[in-house]
């Protein structure tokens, strides 16, 4: 989202061309059950429309400009537009069920990792899609965050790097849970990620991968 309209096919193609390991995206259900790719629950911030995604049909979402003439994509279109591995963030259990149908129908267990802020959504997607890799996401958390990940069956934690501590990373690693830091958009945060020995980071600026080799 730092260089292209976020959650659009244009942005995903740019990320793939930049050589990113994984492309992260966000999923919400439209009024008619489509897996719309958008971060917010409403369309106001990233399109020229207004109102909640859940109150709009896919056709109504398609009529919106998501930036530079891009349209709101659905998950299946992203699968076809890029070949990279994907990390799909789901916002609730209903989205988990819709995503599970696609993952099973297209045999995507190896390609798509599923993340969520909601423990129950992580549990649900794992129940519906045996073998799927899952990530529990958190911005604020308490001392039980690693226990929560283990209880939900998540293989990884994605945590706000501004609040991440070495203690949490070491505890997670001791329990066999990987840790991803978000969002790493500066060289200082990249240096911190390396110092903490994180398993990965997310960024809005693909070029940080290239420049970080020399400066971080």
TrEMBL record:
Q: Name one GO molecular function term.
A: phosphoric diester hydrolase activity
An individual GO BP term: lipid metabolic process
Q: Name one Pfam family in it.
A: GDPD
What are the residue boundaries of the GP-PDE domain, all occurrences included? 1-213
Q: Which Gene3D superfamilies match?
A: Phosphatidylinositol (PI) phosphodiesterase (3.20.20.190)
InterPro entries, per database record: GP_PDE_dom, PLC-like_Pdiesterase_TIM-brl
Protein name (record) = Glycerophosphodiester phosphodiesterase
Q: What species was this sequence derived from? A: Streptomyces cavourensis
